[in-house]
Amino acid sequence: MSADELKGFLATAVALAKEVGPAFKDGFWRKGQFANADDFAVEGKKGNAADCVTAVDCHIERVLFSRLRSIYPHHKFVGEETTAECGDAAITDDPTWIVDPVDGTNNFVHHHHFTGVSIGLAIDKQPVVGVVYLPILDELYTGIRGQGSFLNGQRLPLVGPLTTPTSLAQCMMVSEHGSSHDETMHSRMRSLTRLLLAKEHGGAGLESLRFAGAATSDMSLIAKGVAEVHWEIGLHAWDIAAASVIVTESGGAVFDGSGWWGLPEGEREPQPLNIWNRKIVSVRYIPDLPGQPGSGRELQIQLAKELLSVVEDIPCTPDGLH
Ligand code: IPD
């Protein structure tokens, strides 16, 4: 795929994100076409109130897919709501649009501003184009593999000059407890506790922890350079496909998020992210500064290792294998 073809895909995704912006805002403020409570109606998927869907999610996904299908009839499509309904995601090497119409639906329902539209394009199963649009904050994040990432046209990362974190003790982490409030919550909470506990109490001594409530928002904080590390297990390709391009193109790094806690000691390296495997670690851009103990890339790997060595793994069925 040429650089110009990728630019064309990005332009389409940006135009579509902007097109659905007004419906997103109407739903968020319960006005216009979503002024009636009945039109808005929130449902918990499979009876789980934390994993919810609204009429706005379904409306936006329908609009995005019908536009994309008419422009790219030979491409494939994976969307949170369609896939949740049909119970499967078709994963092939073909160009595949991966869409979350409302990431952070729970935030959206509560009028919490960290919520947005995510449109990613994967080719050969690798994300190459990403658009994350947070309409309430008026933030449009874009990225193309090999061509950088931007927030409202300004190159990422935004925050500077960035410091060099050499351990989790200097890191703000963003994470989520996830929407499946099942018995795996014990493992998630044990992992977060272990991360936060001071070193003298046997923990990793993480400096601070934040929950934005939406994977795309978490990852936009990494791409901006606001937060240093991000970890979540249990999310889906539509939560991270677009944002992973935006993070890596900001100079950040993304890895597989399977935890190593409790596994036999040994030399381990963080593995590349597979967006379909539902486990992620992201680390923000770290500059190469004179006198620091390693290159920016080496320090990103070191932080990912430090994190993975204290978090537990949680088995998840990969997307596409339901
Ligand atoms: C969810 C959000 C949440 C994350 C869940 C996702 P949704 O997406 O990103 O932060 O913890 O894993 O499923 O369902 O609101 O689009």
From TrEMBL:
Tree of life domain: Eukaryota
Protein name: Uncharacterized protein
Organism: Coemansia furcata
